[in-house]
Amino acid sequence: MLRDSVLEDGNLHKDSQDKNVMVEEEGRYNLEMVDDQNFNTNNGNKAREEGVKEINAENLFDIDTSLTNKGEVRKRKKYVLLKKKRKVFLFQNRVKKHEVKPPCKCKKSCSVQIGEARRLEINIKYWKKSFTEQKAFLSHFIDISSVKTRRPGNTNDSRKQFSKRYFLKNENGERLKVCKVFFLTTLGYAGKNDSILRNIDSPPKDRRGSYTKKKVDREIIQTHIKKFSPCVSHYRREHAPNKLYLPSDVTVVNMFSDFKKCHPGLQISYELYRTVIKDMNISFTKLGHEECEKCDAFLLHDNGHNKQNANENTDCDKCFQWLDHIKKAEMSREEYRSDKKKIDDNESLYYSTDMQKVIMLPRIDMFKQVIFTPRIIVFNQSFVPLGSISQKHKAVAILWHECISGRKKEDIISAYNGFLTGYARDKKSVYLWADNCSAQNKNWCFLSYLIYVINCDHIAAEKLTIKYFETGHTFMSADSFHHLVEKSMKENPKIYDFQDFLNAVQNSTKSSYIKEMNFSDFKHWPNLTTNYQLQKINKNRPLLKDIAVLEARRGSKCLYYKTSFKDVEYKELNMLSKKNTSLKDPENHTTDRGVSSERKNQIITNLSSLIPKHKLSFWQNLHESNAQNLITVVEDD
User: Fold this and answer.
1) Where are the alpha helices (DSSP H) in 227-308?
2) Is the dihedral angle over the CA atoms 397, 403, 406, 411 positive or is it negative?
3) Are 106 and 181 contacting, i.e. CB atoms less than 8 angstroms apart?
4) Boundaries of each DUF7869 domain copy (predicted)?
């Protein structure tokens, strides 16, 4: 079957092996963050990408039969072929079933009047016609007249009310009379099946495609979806605010179930509800399963181009860009694995860092009222060892919520500073793996910070190296730690306040270090470069998106970079403007960021009956301000 042949494809098998290796590498967490099921569910796309060599009824309806992530049978059908191709096949299959049948053996010698070649020609032309045209053909070549002769008896009870005569044209265009069996078998019908000949005196209008779908007011669905507070992502800020994310305690199934309860008189399908969510650009991306837009764009750009023949399409820019993208992804993954094998010399740290996806408090999802209340966002910038977590190499979580500070680039830098000046303070060399998110890890403010921190007296490091994954292929140890945090929260489903969240993170592993950030831990980190400096001094400076490795060295006020992991030598980046070479300490925040009075009062009013009194004080003591709502707004950096 087609699905089995796709699974046996060498490249797909290789991808599965790579994913298994990834799981094996993070095996210390006993996780299966990336599994073969996710590849099985993409078999349809794989088949479309490669093209179906042989179409038959068996592989046409070979639906993806893999189980869901919960181990349940998949309900929604996912066909191998696109709908358009399925329609073409169904038409071809219908024509094949109605090929010319053996002729009659009547005394009229119909076969002598109209030969087999002419019969085949008539059959082909007939099945090229539309439904209405076929009815018109039958009406034209069948004459209907009154019954000429009846047997003696009660003629009113006779079922035969009229007589029919059948005609076909020969090669010369002459209209010749034939028998009923010959007429039917020439058109491809069985000789005894005359159902097609009924009601031909007034051919009915073809009603196919004329059904008007019942239109549903999608604004009702959109309003219901918005009640779940889809949030602007801090994880992929370059797409914000166009891309929204829902907190991890919300699922489409639960949302649809609630919609049916709220609108019992409005009958809609699960697929329509799911489509509206997609149209609103709301994502349910899972931990460790980041969507790669470049790979998706490649698969869709040309049906004739796929992973197997991309090398051959030398004149296709999309194929060339995708090959370069995959090459960079493979090199970064190989470098990541190499760093994992580095011998521990007690003076170096090899960690990955990432911010956990949307988490909202309070988190007591068994109560629907909580989900519909505009909660506050919690941030977890995690620093996790590439090797196994232990007392010697702990997972470090830098934690705060939006009432303390936001998610601007200077807030992310403050989280880096909390790790480097705290847990990593005494290490001589620090290596950090990060994703390619420009809002978090690749901006001139962050690069300015690297020069500042390596030359300050707050850490012992002589060298600080940042390595970047290729966009869309960023699975790392931090993702595994985030999974454990999520698992810990599910095991303790009632997380009423920030302290409960701190406890859940602390209990996610036996060896973890958490740092609760206060407003004074956040600083106003400046951008120490200027456009003049970048353009005048560095005539061949790289684009930030092209940098693969960054290195800061003590005693130097320049950065050093590579644009590829295969590069041997670093290139120098002189980015500090002359007036900023003194590297002054930045100013601290002087107060909490706060939350609007309206949101605070709404949380207390709606949830005070659900939250224990001794934990309600956290919400009552939140600092009030005119701060922007981070659920729907991106802060101005």
Assistant:
1) 252-262, 270-279, 293-301
2) negative
3) yes
4) 428-525
Query: What is the number of helices (H) and of strands (E) in the chain?
Result: 23, 16
CB atoms within 10 A of CB 449: 26
Whole-number Å distance between alpha carbons of 5 and 243 = 36
The answer to whether 623 and 401 are in contact (CB under 8 A) is no
Please tell me whether the peptide bond between 362 and the residue prior to it is cis, using omega within 30 degrees of 0. yes
- Tokens 């980046």 belong to residue: 573
CA distance 399 to 375: 17
- Going by DSSP bridges, is the β-strand pair 429-434/348-355 parallel, antiparallel, or unpaired? parallel
Q: Can you state the angle between helices 293-301 and 317-340, rounded to 10 degrees?
A: 150
234-258: string of b/e by CB count within 10 Å (b at 16+)?
Answer: bbbbeebeebbbbbbbbebeebbeb
The tokens describing 69, both together, are: 């992530």
State how far the Cα of 36 lies from the Cα of 21, in Å rounded to an integer: 12
Asked if 627 contacts 408 with a C-beta cutoff of 8 angstroms, the reply is no
**Which strand (E) or helix (H) includes residue 398?**
strand 395-401
Global pTM value: 0.64
> What tokens appear for 619 in the block?
């919400």
- Residue 366's contacts (CB-CB under 8 Å, 6 or more residues apart) are 493
pLDDT in tens, 537-554: 666 777 888 899 999 999
Task: Give CA–CA dist 42/325, Å, rounded.
Answer: 20
Report whether 602 contacts 410 (CB < 8 A): no
Beta-bridge mates of residue 431: 350, 465
Residue (of 386, 387, 449, 457) closest to 421 by Cα position: 457
Query: Rounded to whole angstroms, how far apart are CA atoms 285 and 479?
Result: 13
Q: Which of 176, 50, 55 is nearest to 113 (CA)?
A: 176
HSE toward the beta carbon, residue 257, CA cutoff 13 A: 6
What would the pLDDT profile of 148-195 be if each residue is shown by its tens digit?
A: 777 776 656 667 777 889 999 998 889 999 999 999 999 999 888 888
* Domain residue ranges of the chain, discontinuous segments joined by +: 1-81, 98-147+163-197, 318-620
Hunting for tokens 């309806």 — which residue is that? 61
Residues 305 and 319: their CA atoms lie apart, in Å, by 8
Record the tokens describing residue 495, joined without a space. 């997380």
Q: How far is CA 257 from CA 229, 260, 372, 439, 591, in A?
A: 17, 5, 14, 36, 42
pLDDT at 66: 64
Cα 178–Cα 184–Cα 190 angle in degrees, nearest 5: 140
Q: Would you list the DSSP string of 172-197?
A: T--EEEE-HHHHHHHHT--TT--GGG
